[in-house]
Amino acid sequence: xxxxxxxxxxxxxxxxxxxxxxxxxxxxxxxxxxxxxxxxxxxxxxxxxxxxxxxxxxxxxxxxxxxxxxxxxxxxxxxxxxxxxxxxxxxxxxxxxxxxxxxxxxxxxxxxxxxxxxxxxxxxxxxxxxxxxxxxxxxxxxxxxxxxxxxxxxxxxxxxxxxxxxxxxxx
Length: 171
Prior knowledge:
alpha+beta
């Protein structure tokens, strides 16, 4: 990924363990995103948090020295989620150890697709918002009812998490 370009990114939990099934872990992901947006590092245009993955349409504005776009999200979210798992369910860490014996929540499988125009963005965001209602998940009957997604923002223009930027205003 490159700075100041919009990307559709999907990040998967290591071995697809449903670490993000818990409300507390989803909330930690939101906290990290809120912090990154408040510090003007990233613009979040759309998102969905599923039990074993997150998906975004985002645009990185700046990164710390030695990091690439997205690295800070991976690092901070790992630290916070691992800390909570250590306190609440340490046995779950066994599924998240890397080859060096260190806990890691994100797997190596990631995809990043540059979003180059409004039509492409709208199509991707529409599909992203439908993920929680698909057969695989059945997390809500209607995309607008799923809390951990930007779907309701695009319908109501109310940003419940205070971190979203309308993609339509950036093309």
